[in-house]
Amino acid sequence: MMNRLKIELQILRLFEKLPPEKRTHFTESYDRGKTPCFKFIVMELVGKSVYNIQKDAPKREFSLSTAFKLGIQTLEAIEHLHELGKDRDEFGGREGRSYLHRDIKPHNYSIGIGQKKNKIYILDFGIARKFVKKTGTMILRVPRERVKFLGTLKYASRACHYSKEQSRKDDLEAWLYMQLEFIDPQTIFWAFERDRKNVVVQKEKLFSEEWERGK
């Protein structure tokens, strides 16, 4: 597996080449290097994580308007990540490098500081993965037959539970769980469950007619 810091740096370098409107939700990278003991990246300072903001809110709930505003910005950040380098000419002929995040959750989004306090940033690309072939096209990589569980139990997609290769839809499914939690934390009724099998059963119920009927 590629070193997590190396993946992080690779993605940050690609972000630096994006037009300003596509860099809105990504931090600036100022420096990088290594010492005899460790490697490091110096990044733009951001504020609290969305997780901590919700944790500190009255009853740990956002207002409906705040939940929707967060939803728009967090989803836009995922869209820009998925489109990263998808065009052959976007980076002067470099290969397509569209990425999946694979760990979408409130902990990996933060607010800005100062004049950027209303901006949401997406963070932590350590387990991100390319989902296209190295051809400069949007031809998808051949999915692996079995993939180990990656991500966070509470927000992981059902495909992740079933050891299937993740795709863009899985980032969106994780985003959906996060957004439901923004609107009403009680919706995530598996929040305190620790058994993976039980969690995926509950997630399947969320998409079933049984849940729609309130059973």
Total beta-strand segments: 6
The CATH architecture category equals Orthogonal Bundle
Number of helices: 7
CATH class: Mainly Alpha
User: Whole-Å distance between the termini?
Assistant: 43 Å
Overall shape: it is: globular
Give the full name of the CATH homologous superfamily: Transferase(Phosphotransferase) domain 1
- List segments where confidence is low: pLDDT < 50 over at least 5 consecutive residues: 88-96
What would the average pLDDT be, to the nearest integer? 87
CATH topology: Transferase(Phosphotransferase), domain 1
For the CA atoms, what is the radius of gyration?
18 Å
Query: Could you give the order of the helices and strands?
Result: HEEHHEEEEHHHH
Could you describe the largest sheet, including whether it forms a barrel?
2 strands, antiparallel
Determine the fraction of residues in helical runs and give it as a percent range: 25-40%
Strand content: 5-15%
Could you say how many structural domains there are in total?
A: 1
Structural class: alpha+beta
Order of strands, main sheet, comes to: 1-2
Describe this structure as you would to a colleague:
This is Protein kinase domain-containing protein. It comes from Panagrolaimus sp. JU765. By secondary structure, the protein is an alpha+beta fold. It has a single domain, classed as Transferase(Phosphotransferase), domain 1. Helices cover 34% and strands 10% of the residues. The strands form three sheets. The protein has a two-stranded antiparallel sheet. Helix 3 (64-82) packs antiparallel against helix 5. The chain is globular. The model is unreliable at 88-96 (pLDDT under 50).
